[in-house]
Amino acid sequence: MFAAGPPASILLYVLAPEKMTGWPDLPRPEERPFIAEKYRDLPALGRLTGRGGTANLEVVLKVAPDLIIDFGSVGDTYASLADNVQAQIRIPYVLIDGRLDATPKALRLLGEILDVGERAERQAAYVEATFAEIDAVLAAVPADKRPLVYLARGPDGLETGVVGSINTEIIERAGGRNVMQAAGQRGLVRASMEQVIAADPDIIITWDRNYFGKVFDDPLWSGIRAVRDKRVYLAPTAPFGWIDRPPSLNRVIGLRWLAGLFYPDRLKQGLRETARSFYRLFYHVEPSDADLDTLIAWSRGLAPAASQPRR
Fold first, then answer.
1. What's the domain range around 74?
2. Within 10 A of 263 (CB to CB), how many other CB atoms are there?
3. Residue 301 predicted with pLDDT over 60
4. Cα–Cα distance between 276 and 292 in angstroms, integer?
5. Is 184 strand, coil or helix?
6. Would 111 be classed as within a structural domain?
7. Collapsed DSSP state (helix, strand, coil) of residue 126
8. Which pairs count as long-range contacts for 267-270, CB under 8 Å and 24+ apart, including other chains?
9. I need a surface site. Which of 5, 183, 270, 289 has the fewest CB within 10 A?
10. 195 in any annotated domain
11. Distance between CA 13 and CA 266 in Å, rounded?
12. pLDDT number for residue 280
């Protein structure tokens, strides 16, 4: 099976790693401990979709997969790409809806296609239980009482996603109010510092360590409520981002983490055991205590020298 891009490669790895032909990009050194050993060294084949597409159809033909899988937007652009690729190389191409709320359906669909329905059902049930647990909490929290949240991407923290973006829907699904509402804009946008100051979020989420490492000392950010209250959190990124980067099945663990950050008194969670069980079921690994310490340190906004990524 050939994954058309990073979101599809995660879906395929989660559901049927034994059917993978390769990764879009090689796992980085700090990601390898969280990927099952037999799949860490699969070749890098590039990507057909997404930013910086590097694969070409000759690569796909050389690999000769039984199926090409894409996971994400099912809009006209991606549907047209799927049709064109399939017509050119005569390899079946399946495009699966990558919206967060559609995750259980996506798992069951691909599980049926790949004949791994039992594994797909266990994973889909986990996702549905996560949704139900969070929904039970949110039912008791009025919309205007939910925290204002800003997603800070990039080293300056000024790339973000607008309400409804696939990059920020996890924030909204976990019960946060995305402060970035830009009329007429979709997806990722550049915010101005003035917009962030005016929005004054209660919580800032980032996965960029450069931004996280300087935000508390940056006078431009010092007046923002989240910074003053030390509520800027660094999302784990190994083996895949907990928030997006890419937006795929990896967001399910991020959803549980975010809901716990937003509602710590209502949603009790032992993050170590939550991560251990998720990584076992979805990533096919049993993280060591040291690896879990690293993940949890990052997720609490702490990055002591002993917990830095292995190079």
1. 2-97
2. 20
3. no
4. 8
5. coil
6. no
7. helix
8. 267/133, 267/134, 267/137
9. 183
10. yes
11. 33
12. 97
Cβ-count burial of 48 within 10 angstroms (0-12 exposed, 13-18 middle, 19+ buried)? buried
- Do 159 and 246 sit in the same domain of this protein? yes
- Phi/psi for 201 (5° steps) reads -65, 150
| 202 and 281 assigned to the same domain | yes
Quote the number of domains for the chain. 2
Written as one letter, the residue type at 165 is S
For residue 20, the domain's CATH number is 3.40.50.1980
User: Percentage of the chain with pLDDT > 70?
Assistant: 93
pLDDT score at 296: 78
Asked if residue 82 has pLDDT above 90, the reply is: yes
Q: Please give the Cα distance from 22 to 46 (Å, whole number).
A: 9
Q: DSSP readout, 45-109? A: ---SSSTT----HHHHHHH--S-EEEEE--SHHHHHHHHHHHHHH---EEEEE--GGGHHHHHHH
For residues 157 and 84, membership in a common domain is answered with no
pLDDT grade for 254, boundaries at 50, 70 and 90: very high
- The three-state secondary structure class of 173 is helix
Chosen domain end from 43, 69, 97? 97
pTM of the model: 0.91
Indicate whether 42 belongs to any domain: yes
Reported as a single tens digit per residue, the pLDDT across 37-66 is 999 999 999 999 866 555 688 999 999 999
**In whole angstroms, what is the distance from residue 271 CA to residue 257 CA?**
8
Looking at the fold, whether 85 and 178 belong to one and the same domain comes out as no
Residue 71 located in a structural domain: yes
